[in-house]
């Protein structure tokens, strides 16, 4: 997915030749202290920024040399994104929010959205507005939306960071279970040890380099 990825802002180097691959159905967590380049790595792999050097591949296709418009179109079809904030639209129902990626692509998506909402325990909330949901419910809806188009890769940046312990555990379990059942590879940045413990691999990013790769999850905060 990422091959010898490098990035810098001015004279400040953020990433120094990072290479990693995520297989279908595999969950990979990225750990590291603040400023180590975790979010930058995720944004580059998502095609939201351009790397200074190296290559980025989605499902076998190189995308880093494509225009922003082309990357956006591919991202809508092939990637799922989950952030610390849910980014649901307040003027749409929960069902409409989850179905939105398909609507943008010219499809319907409501049947798929209903099925996903049932899987995250929100079938009874589909006609409500996001403002009536709890924080954990909103993040579960955001996860359902990210999986709507059956993406090959799900990218998550601190997906449980704004939740209390109970909701963080529930969202962590759902994220991993649903991603594996959908055969989506997952690359997530997290300080949540409970979420990282569910990953198949943990990569430690220090000073812009992957220093080690382990299965046991002791995270620097």
TrEMBL record:
Domain of life according to the entry: Bacteria
Keyword Transmembrane: no
Sequence similarity: Belongs to the ABC transporter superfamily.
Gene Ontology MF annotations: ATP binding; ATP hydrolysis activity; transmembrane transporter activity
SUPFAM superfamilies the UniProt entry points to: P-loop containing nucleoside triphosphate hydrolases
Protein name per UniProt: ABC-type antimicrobial peptide transport system, ATPase component
SMART domains referenced in this protein's UniProt entry, alphabetically: AAA (SM00382)
Limits of the ABC transporter domain: 5-221
Protein's organism: Deinococcus peraridilitoris (strain DSM 19664 / LMG 22246 / CIP 109416 / KR-200)
Xref: Pfam families: ABC_tran (PF00005)
GO cellular-component term (any): plasma membrane
InterPro entries: AAA+_ATPase, ABC_transporter-like_ATP-bd, ABC_transporter-like_CS, ABC_transpr_LolD-like, MacB-like_ATP-bd, P-loop_NTPase
Keyword Ribonucleoprotein: no
């Amino acid at each position: 997915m990422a091959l010898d990825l490098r990035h810098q802002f001015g004279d400040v180097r953020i990433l120094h030749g990072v290479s990693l691959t995520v297989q279908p159905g595999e969950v990979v967590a990225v750990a590291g202290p603040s400023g180590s380049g975790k979010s930058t790595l995720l944004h580059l792999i998502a095609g939201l920024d351009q790397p200074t050097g190296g290559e980025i591949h989605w499902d076998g296709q190189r995308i880093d040399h494509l225009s922003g418009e082309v990357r956006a179109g591919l991202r809508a079809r092939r990637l799922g994104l989950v952030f610390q904030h849910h980014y649901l639209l307040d003027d749409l129902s929960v069902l409409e929010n989850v179905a939105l990626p398909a609507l943008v692509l010219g499809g319907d998506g409501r049947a798929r959205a209903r099925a996903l909402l049932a899987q995250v325990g929100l079938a009874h909330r589909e006609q409500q507005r996001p403002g009536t949901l709890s924080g954990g419910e909103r993040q579960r809806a955001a996860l359902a939306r990210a999986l709507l188009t059956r993406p090959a890769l799900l990218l998550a940046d601190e997906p449980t960071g704004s939740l209390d312990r109970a909701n963080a555990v529930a969202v962590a379990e759902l994220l991993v279970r649903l991603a594996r059942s959908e055969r989506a590879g997952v690359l997530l940045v997290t300080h949540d040890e409970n979420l990282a413990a569910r990953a198949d691999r943990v990569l430690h990013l220090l000073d812009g380099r992957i220093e080690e790769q382990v299965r046991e999850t002791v995270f620097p905060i």
